[in-house]
Specification:
Elements: H1 3-18, H2 27-41, H3 48-57, H4 69-81, H5 87-99, H6 114-125, H7 129-142, H8 160-164, H9 171-177, H10 189-214
Helix pairs in contact: 1-3, 2-3, 2-6, 3-5, 3-6, 4-5, 5-6, 6-10
The structure holds adenosine-5'-diphosphate and nickel (II) ion.
Length: 217
């Protein structure tokens, strides 16, 4: 089986797992992450198969999305084993998908390989800019968040546990607590460059939002 054939099977598997998602992680998100990862791969000496496989699979066993992530990780292991991937390749892919998330970076950030860093950058680039704004609104609406409440101040520092248990989150707070922090956290020069324009777009959006909110007060 060629790497192309393996990736095509992994793409199909990811599509079937993600197509019903309504939390902003559907297959469109995966396709954008894949396209960004391919763009970064042009500049970085990373393993394409590991990077793209982890990008396709990065949200399949997310503990926010499935009740038993360990069961799904075992399923992914068996699936990749069936594609003749080695144990070493599979553990690298599962390590990346397990350690990618923003909340995991809050306490003791796990060390990621270059392949992991590329997937993380690509995932994070999809959380900022115009698409990031819409995803935050979509996620917030789905989770009954208030749009904005000036009385609720952004929490600058949070532990992983606190971040996961927010119950008074507003959509605008999410920008200060996560989205505006991502640009400084990008790993690769390519991602840092793309992030800058998207970051500025979010700052402009927040200025306009607050100006409209406070208009005629
Ligand atoms: P991923 O792991 O793909 O980066 P997450 O599961 O953390 O994404 O979030 C999915 C999308 O929803 C992202 O765009 C993220 O910024 C947004 N999001 C996550 N948590 C919140 C929240 N509490 N309020 C608004 N948007 C959120
Ligand atoms: Ni993702």
């Amino acid at each position: 089986m060629t790497d192309e054939e393996k990736l095509s099977a992994i793409r199909k598997y990811s599509f079937n797992k993600m197509k019903q998602d309504t939390t902003g992680h559907n297959f469109d998100h995966i396709q954008r992450v894949i396209r960004t990862a391919k763009q970064i791969l042009k500049k970085e000496p990373a393993d394409h198969l590991i990077t793209l496989a982890a990008a396709y699979l990065h949200d399949v066993a997310d503990d926010k999305l499935v009740s038993d992530p360990a069961k799904l990780e075992k399923e992914i292991y068996d699936f990749l084993k069936g594609l003749d991937m080695t144990d070493e390749q599979i553990s690298e892919i599962l390590y990346i998908t397990h350690n990618l998330s923003f909340s995991k970076s809050l306490d003791n950030p796990p060390k990621l390989s270059l392949e992991g860093q590329i997937v993380q950058d690509s995932d994070r680039l999809d959380a900022i800019g115009a698409i990031g704004i819409v995803r935050a609104v979509y996620y917030g609406g789905n989770n009954s968040e208030t749009i904005y409440d000036p009385a609720i101040k952004p929490r600058e520092k949070m532990t992983k546990a606190e971040y996961r248990n927010l119950n008074d989150e507003t959509i605008i707070n999410h920008f200060y607590e996560k989205l505006l922090k991502l640009t400084a956290m990008m790993n690769t020069p390519t991602a840092k460059k793309i992030a800058q324009g998207r970051h500025q777009y979010m700052l402009d959006f927040l200025d306009e939002f607050k100006a409209e909110w406070d208009a005629n007060k």
